[in-house]
Amino acid sequence: MPTPIGHALGGIAAGAFIVRRAGWPCRLAGRRVPIVLVFALLGMLADVDFVIKEGHRHATHSLAAAGAVGVVAVFVAEGRPLLWLASSAAYATHVLLDWLGMDTVAPFGLMALWPFDSTYYQSSLQVFYPVCRQYWLFDCWVRLAWSVWYELLIVGPFALAGVFLMRHRRVRHG
Ligand SMILES: [Zn+2]
User: Fold this and answer.
1) Ligand 1 mean position to 174 CA, how many Å?
2) How far is the CA of 61 from the centre of ligand 1 (A)?
3) Are 147 and 2 in contact (CB under 8 A)?
């Protein structure tokens, strides 16, 4: 499973590719927030189940949850269907990246099709390293650093390309 950094990059990549406009105002609690930051947070959001401890990687790690984010976006960003789709896609990258990652804690994988199916799905590709949680060990931090570096190499170019497209559009259209 990727680290939060890998998930943030995935969210930025998907959201940026879909909206490709940095100039859209986005307000949270009355403050203007860069849209890439919103996509990064949406990419990480599924792991909120670590905090609520309702079982990791099921409801929040489903495509249904990604759809629910799109529905919420309908109310938060009225009249901006691309932003609804981008928000949903940014969240869905979390499901995709976790599915592509190695998992060392049972049950392995995630309930991608919850609530229709309670099967845990995990890709055999195992592209991303598992996140080490033995933080008191030096070796764990070395492995985390390696994981982040690997995620930067794999997901980073997509996020950079998305941000480049957003900036390019903004310059072209003033
Ligand atoms: Zn996750």
Assistant:
1) 38
2) 6
3) yes
Alpha-carbon distance of 35 to 51, in angstroms, equals 25
Residue ranges covered by each domain of the chain: 4-172
| 3 state SS for 66-129 | HHHHHHHHHHHCCCCHHHHHHHHHHHHHHHHHHHCECCCCCCCCECCCCCCCCCCECCCCCCEC
- Specify the pTM: 0.92
Number of helices and strands in the chain (H, E): 7, 2
Q: pLDDT digit string (tens) for 20-78?
A: 876 666 776 677 888 999 999 999 999 998 877 666 788 999 999 999 999 999 998 88
